[in-house]
């Protein structure tokens, strides 16, 4: 296997041993005019490599070899590669460009889709990481099998990506897809891949994605608050709420950047929630952060896609045995009809379920406004902290006043009645601790909690708060 076209000098990649170079297709259909490619020209080549100084398994599917199509030999090489990775306790990295199934091998080709997915599932069940880099084109049965179940996926800029290639779409529908479809950029926008990465940086991204190299830091967009708020909390509850909503106050994304040292993005379709494989003081952790400055319909209102990203991140953390940090700041979930049609209530429930089933420790920090079920979806954690300038409430008081009183003038009164300020929440047993708005103090509290929290303790606090609220 030639590494040079795929890993330039200095990329930190070295082939240790190529595998299964003797396999060749037996032409199972006797397809007219088909000549099975020589072993070295098969679409899929596999090898044990050294990546960032650590062993890894490499699967390379190249459109330049037999159109990148997956037949019996390609599928067998993929299956063997995953199973060898399981035995070696090694991650799998994939570089892929493909035209899909090999038509000349018929249903034998199609059977490789479930075979390769099952092999990837065995690798995932062993708690091992995988990452794929998609080149142009990446289509068909390869994309719809082992590639799309990789833990993280990136693509080269402008790559053609789609289950049906553009020519197939034109034949089936009578029209070619628009230029905004079937591209890496469209896939990123819809949360189907995690990043767009220049070809010259693909090996560094792959290494970072599987933990074989240091990732870069999380960098919020320009114009965001640069430091935690320094104004004292408001004396009256309504003043406190308004301060929590102050546009100069940092949100979850800023706190995620301040609390972590490295970050590999998990892509999502709704920027109201960001998630990443991160590091905090040398500890690997999965972080899910709400961002009240971003969103599809309105800033800070997570929709169904935001909660699906949170679920994916939490499930990945559980499989990789990593702790989870969630950061909450939202007035509530997106209430638009489109969000309802997308099943936002069910996605909130499934996010709570993912946290309930998480086998590893979890910590939440409410850094701004915690509003209604849209915020509690990320707060069912083993430890729950609240910044001293934050609030947490059953509902935003504006909506609450509309429900209870039909009188917006009573919003300040209801804010007081809902007991949403830190001292009240601590008294009610809703939160474990109130933290000062200081990066060093918050990082120390989070780091200690991640190291000492007991998975499953998330049930104790709500049970105790409920018991204190019940009389017999």
Automatic annotation (TrEMBL):
Places the protein is found: Cytoplasm
Keywords from the UniProt entry: ATP-binding, Cytoplasm, Fatty acid biosynthesis, Fatty acid metabolism, Lipid biosynthesis, Lipid metabolism, Metal-binding, Nucleotide-binding, Transferase, Zinc, Zinc-finger
A Gene Ontology BP annotation from the UniProt entry: malonyl-CoA biosynthetic process
Annotated catalysed reactions: N(6)-carboxybiotinyl-L-lysyl-[protein] + acetyl-CoA = N(6)-biotinyl-L-lysyl-[protein] + malonyl-CoA
Residue stretches making up the CoA carboxyltransferase C-terminal domain: 221-452
Boundaries of every CoA carboxyltransferase N-terminal domain copy: 1-228
Source species, domain of life: Bacteria
Major localization listed first in the record, in broad terms: cytoplasm
Protein's name according to its UniProt entry: Acetyl-coenzyme A carboxylase carboxyl transferase subunits beta/alpha
């Amino acid at each position: 296997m030639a590494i040079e076209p795929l890993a330039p000098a200095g990329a930190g990649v070295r082939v240790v041993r190529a595998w299964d170079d003797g396999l060749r297709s037996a032409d199972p259909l006797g397809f007219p005019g088909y000549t099975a490619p020589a072993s070295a020209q098969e679409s899929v080549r596999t090898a044990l490599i050294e990546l960032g100084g650590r062993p890894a398994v490499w699967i390379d599917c190249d459109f330049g070899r037999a159109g990148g199509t997956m037949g019996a030999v390609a599928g067998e090489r993929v299956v063997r590669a995953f199973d060898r990775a399981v035995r070696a306790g090694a991650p799998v990295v994939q570089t892929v460009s493909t035209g899909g199934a090999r038509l000349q091998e018929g249903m034998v080709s199609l059977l490789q889709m479930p075979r390769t997915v099952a092999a990837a599932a065995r690798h995932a069940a062993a708690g091992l990481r995988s990452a794929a880099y998609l080149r142009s084109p990446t289509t068909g049965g390869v994309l719809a099998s082992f590639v799309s179940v990789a833990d993280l996926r990136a693509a080269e800029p402008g790559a053609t990506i789609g289950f049906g290639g553009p020519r197939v779409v034109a034949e089936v529908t009578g029209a070619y897809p628009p230029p905004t479809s079937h591209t890496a950029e469209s896939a990123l926008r819809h949360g189907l891949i995690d990043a767009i990465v220049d070809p010259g940086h693909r090996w560094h991204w792959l290494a970072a994605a599987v933990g074989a190299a240091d990732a870069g830091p999380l960098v919020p967009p320009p114009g965001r608050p640069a430091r935690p708020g320094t104004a004292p909390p408001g004396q009256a509850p309504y003043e406190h709420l308004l301060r929590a909503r102050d546009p100069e106050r940092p949100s979850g994304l800023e706190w995620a950047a301040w609390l972590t040292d490295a970050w590999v993005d998990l892509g999502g379709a709704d920027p109201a929630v960001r998630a990443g494989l991160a590091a905090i003081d040398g500890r690997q952790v999965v972080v899910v952060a709400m961002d009240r400055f971003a969103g599809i319909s309105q800033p800070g209102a997570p929709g169904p896609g935001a909660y699906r990203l949170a679920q994916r991140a939490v499930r990945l953390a559980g499989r990789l045995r990593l702790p989870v940090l969630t950061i909450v700041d939202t007035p509530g979930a997106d209430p638009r009809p489109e969000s309802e049609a997308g099943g936002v209530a069910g996605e909130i429930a499934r996010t709570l379920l993912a946290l309930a089933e998480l086998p590893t420790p979890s910590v939440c920090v409410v850094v701004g406004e915690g509003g209604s079920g849209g915020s509690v979806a990320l707060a069912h954690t083993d430890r729950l902290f609240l910044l001293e300038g934050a609030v947490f409430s059953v509902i935003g008081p504006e909506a609450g006043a509309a429900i209870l009183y039909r009188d917006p003038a009573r919003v300040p009164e209801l804010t007081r009645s809902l007991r949403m300020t830190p001292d009240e929440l601590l008294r009610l047993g809703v939160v474990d601790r109130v933290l000062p708005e200081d990066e060093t103090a918050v990082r120390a509290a989070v780091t200690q909690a991640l190291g000492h929290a007991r998975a499953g303790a998330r049930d104790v606090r709500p049970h105790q708060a409920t018991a204190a609220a019940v009389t017999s």
